[in-house]
Amino acid sequence: MSRFFSSKYKNLTPYTPGEQPKDTQYIKLNTNESPYPPSEKAIKYASEASEKLNLYPDPTCSALHEAFAKTVGVETDMVLATNGSDEILNFAFMAFCNENCGAVFPDITYGFYSVFAQLNNIPYEEIPLKDDFTIDVNDYIGKNKTIFIANPNAPTGIPLSLSQIEEILKGNPDNIVVIDEAYIDFGNDSAVSLIPKYDNLLVTQTFSKSRSMAGARLGFGIASKEIINDLNTVKYSTNPYNINKMTIAAGIGILEDNDYTLNNCEEIIKTREYTADALSSLGFTLTPSTANFLFAKHNKISGKEIYSELKENGILVRHFDKEKIKEYNRITIGTKEQMETLVSTLKSILEDR
Amino acid sequence: MSRFFSSKYKNLTPYTPGEQPKDTQYIKLNTNESPYPPSEKAIKYASEASEKLNLYPDPTCSALHEAFAKTVGVETDMVLATNGSDEILNFAFMAFCNENCGAVFPDITYGFYSVFAQLNNIPYEEIPLKDDFTIDVNDYIGKNKTIFIANPNAPTGIPLSLSQIEEILKGNPDNIVVIDEAYIDFGNDSAVSLIPKYDNLLVTQTFSKSRSMAGARLGFGIASKEIINDLNTVKYSTNPYNINKMTIAAGIGILEDNDYTLNNCEEIIKTREYTADALSSLGFTLTPSTANFLFAKHNKISGKEIYSELKENGILVRHFDKEKIKEYNRITIGTKEQMETLVSTLKSILEDR
Lengths: 353, 353
Prior knowledge:
The structure is a homodimer. Chain A has helices at residues 40-50, 62-72, 85-96, 112-119, 162-170, 225-236, 245-256, 258-281, 303-312, 336-351, and strands at residues 27-29, 79-82, 103-106, 124-127, 146-150, 177-180, 201-206, 219-222, 284-286, 293-298, 315-317, 328-332. By secondary structure, chain A is α/β, with parallel strands linked by helices. In chain A, the strands form three sheets. In chain A, strands 2-8-7-6-5-3-4 form a seven-stranded mixed beta sheet, with helices on both faces. In chain A, strand 5, helix 5 and strand 6 form a beta-alpha-beta unit. In chain A, helix 1 runs antiparallel to helix 7 (245-256) and helix 2 packs parallel to helix 7. Chain A is globular and about 60 Å long. At the A-B interface, helix 1, helix 3, helix 4, helix 6 and helix 7 of A face helix 1, helix 3, helix 4, helix 6 and helix 7 of B.
């Protein structure tokens, strides 16, 4: 730390992203990427855009906003593209929380929420999940705080139903409820359909998972025009050209190939079911995940050991040290072939015991 | 504004980026882009990267950091890549200013500094330029505030010498001095050479101007390891994957083609001298700009009128409404051909008077 660093950040603990090994020798099941490449149009449009990089991107992202709004079925001025969904989440903490209006989220969820709260000097409350890792909706009624819910939740993969989300929205009519839908496309209904009914709803989505674009950094906020307008004020005061030209182009390309995304999601759901069954047969306990990952523990080997032995065998999964979940590993759903390798590797690891 | 918007931002006036017309019918001399496309390697590497967008980028940007550090002649852990130089500037306001340590910068400079200060709730002082639009170094001694100086300054293009910058660094040994070198490559010496001598110096650069990559969004901070470490704390608490895979690749490509950048800069300097002479002959008054733009006024026609008449004739330049500079226009240096068209168009406009 330099002697110049602002005292307000001296206790800030940054987020730790999953390992990104520079070589490609691992089967990488640790950061919930898609095993499928971006669509042909996404690649083509991005490549074409790279030839014109001397010119600034369109700061209004109008063509991309239009394509995305059409895909999710809202008006163009009800969406805002950001540099990954981390950026829209940070904008939400900036715009809709402050010292007097804190944040609230589950104790087990996306680890970045607490970092954003600390970064922005926002008091926050972490509500324990129930013992079965589900969210008790009653814990989120009348909070007088801004609510952040990942749906399905991470790293458990367990979803809330839309009627449960409605209960939270109704129970906090004067506060923003952020529904972080990073993993919505793997078997759940989006809360976007609730936006016309609830002016306190902000939905966030990402192109990093179902849309095969983690490397491009593209996220979205979807909400009423007024909320998007506030988020635009933050964007234009932070980084007006927040999305580069190639990502804008790739985003338009992948949206034009929407069937490709839908097919990939179906494939991942099938592979998830295969993997869940196989891991259960090996004695793993799993949460009922509806995301592109599983969350699994074994009663014979610790979570940390499974992580380490898999890594030794060339497979990366994500382990979290947090006490309540330290016996689990989060395992991304890759291709069928990758998951077969995972299953046979786990089988050998267990046989050696 | 929604009823949920945080009161702290209710008076925030966002930055207004230059017009980015969606059609390409204009000769675009309004946002200081390079008239030259990115280098072949930049395009090739970016296109290749677009095929692997399903995987996250390297959050440490290690290959890009290494290439950039080598180019500017510092150690790899003395640089940090950001999503355009706006992001590194915002990080600097976040990390090195607070309620007790305000910011100071000239009254006429990059318009985003005051927005960043407001966004981060930082008190700021704007020091008037001298009548000839130069900075008086004596105004920046013993400020007890974080100092932001664009060198050369925008929109005047007038530089400080390295010895003047040293005076400011020596005069504020306990405060960070940020030297924003967005336009350094068009005829001035970088303050990077001063970093080993001054632990309070943070230099920022951008690939948007000399390196033909405005569309890719790539900026850098260059400073002591300790300062870069602080900025990394902010980055990993804000957006760990702040640079996408294609921009990382394009950045490495353009750095490998460094001669291409140097040749383009030489060409732009020559074209600037041609244009400055031609405009002087037409009766314009110019600041002694050493950037990739000129700053010019005419005693017969108002700045606003010149802007409007040029726009009617298919040429976009940048006009600022600020009282002290409202008679001027900032004119980006394009290709020789584009500038010949500008000169002949201005000639016709003046003849019609």
